[in-house]
Structure formats: C-alpha cells, structure tokens
Amino acid sequence: MMKRTIGQTGRSVFCIGLGGMPLSIEGRPDEKTAISVIHAAWDAGVDFLDIANVYCLDQQDIGHNERLIAKALKLWGKPSENIMIATKGGLSRPRGDWTSLASPKELRRACERSLKDLQLETLFLYQLHAVDPHVPFLDSLGELIKLKKEGKILHIGLSNITPVLLESALQVTRIESVQNQCNVFYQRDLRNGLIELCSRYEITYIAYSPVGGSLGHLRVSQDPLLMRLAAQYDTSPYCVALNWLLQLGKNLLPIPGASRIESILDSIRADKISLHPEDMLKIQNIHL
Ligand SMILES: NC(=O)c1ccc[n+]([C@@H]2O[C@H](COP(=O)([O-])OP(=O)(O)OC[C@H]3O[C@@H](n4cnc5c(N)ncnc54)[C@H](OP(=O)(O)O)[C@@H]3O)[C@@H](O)[C@H]2O)c1
Fold this sequence. Notes:
single chain; alpha/beta; TIM Barrel; two-stranded antiparallel sheet; 12 strands; binds NADP nicotinamide-adenine-dinucleotide phosphate
C-alpha cells in the first residue's frame, strides 16, 4: 500500500485521500448514502479525509460536511485514531455563493465552530481555504499561528496559494500542506514550480479536483489518450489520471471526491499501476 507522509508531521496516510465536497454541496446524496460512501472508503484503507465548513448548501447550512463526518465516525464502530481529518476555514456561502471571509476574527470563529461540529478538541490539519483579497495574507496566517499555539490546531495548511505567498508564509511558520487544483487537464503548479517548491520544503501537495472536478471529471472518461492508457494498463481512465499525479512526486496526495461507493473504490486502485515515463510525458503534453 503506497503511503504519503503529511509534511513533517511524521503521520503517514494511504496515498489516495477522500474529498468530501460532493457529499455536502448541491446535488449531494442523502445522509445514509453519504455515510455509506465514507465508511466504504475507511473500510478500504482510505485514512485521509479532506473536508470544509463551507461544503454545504448555503450560510444556514455551514458545517454540514463536518457534522456528517462526526456522525460517520460515531456510526463506524471501529477504532478511528488513524483517520486523519483535514478541514478548512476562510470562506463563506451567502445565498449559496462562495466568498472570502478570512479576517483573524472570522477565522477564529470558523475554527471554533469546526471543532464543535466535528466534536474534536484539536484539528489535525487546518487549512486556510483561500487568501481573502480584503485581508493581508499574513494577518490571516497570524491567526492560524495563534490557534496552533493554543492547541486548537495541530498543523497549518494553505489552499489556493501561489509560490510567492508560500515562500512568505514559510518565513513566519511551518506549513505542512498546500492544497491546489491539479489534474491532467490543469497542470499550472507543475509548470510554475509550486510542486517542486513543496517537495523541497517537505510539504505535502494535496491535489484537489484530481480527476477534473465535479463536472470536468467526465472528460477523463472520454479522453482518447487516457482511455487508450487505461486499456493498456488494464485499469480505468480515472486511475491513469490519479497515477499520473502520484508519480509527479512523493509528496503528492490526490483527494478524489465521490458521492458513490464505486467511484472511491475505483480511485484507490490508482496505486496498483505504474505509468511508464514515456506515458507520463504523453499526459504532461495532453494539451499540446
Ligand atoms: N481547496 C479548494 O478550494 C477545493 C476546491 C475544490 C475541491 N476541493 C477538494 O478536492 C476534492 C476533490 O475535488 P472535486 O470533488 O472538486 O473533483 P474531483 O475529485 O476531480 O471529481 C469528483 C467527481 O469525480 C467522480 N469520480 C471521482 N473518482 C472517480 C472514479 N474513480 N470513477 C468514476 N468517477 C469518479 C465522482 O463522481 P460521483 O460523485 O458520481 O462519485 C466525483 O463527484 C473535493 O471533494 C474537496 O475535498 C478543494
């Protein structure tokens, strides 16, 4: 079983995590189905779960994703110390929109609410969901550092971040993870050096929308190159797309979302193949 260490925390997880977003946003499955997807993932060895307070329908529904996980943990009935939960703060959902809300006061409020909704005393990995254009980045980060000193957060992660901002964050604190969009069709962080920068600092690069996103993922199943490679390696085009990410670096942790058990059970087979360097290159040039 291929593992990934989370930054320098010393904690290792299975190399495919579960993205919790499809379980709580518009189009989400009913609660029983959602919990069965989470349990199926845990039963199969997935021990990293990426969630957020804003994975919900709107502002009234904030915390849906976290309450769902708390319920799933209660109902699972198996030891759960090894399950690592990473949540996020810094956005809000007025009327269902996605907007920034990362002032120090709001981040503290969100973090405390997440602790309550998850029924935890400490958050293993707390990620700034996105930089708030109305708040100096180091002010948002400063509050996370305070929350860490108080023991509410064990480790800090950043999401939707640039190499320049990551470098400035590292001047003031340790960052264990970066979570950005990365998939076969969206390779920005491979080209701008962020993945390499994370590797240099032993920061886990968590690839979100790793199979193209909630709608974009259909493109994976229809792409001629991915389909051909899937047939060649006797796997699914999704596993080809995920294996490509896994092989970009030992610090890569893809977190495919799933609202069906079949999706996550397929995705976890991504470590069963090993794409040949020539095939890696073909995918790297998929757009060219
Ligand atoms: N930090 C951020 O700003 C940010 C932004 C977006 C996402 N994220 C995180 O990243 C996670 C993943 O991103 P995402 O959910 O946007 O996109 P994604 O993982 O690229 O795609 C998710 C969709 O792909 C389908 N899928 C995944 N694996 C499959 C497989 N092996 N076979 C068939 N279908 C498969 C699922 O379908 P079914 O629903 O039918 O199972 C799922 O709804 C999210 O859940 C969230 O935790 C973070």
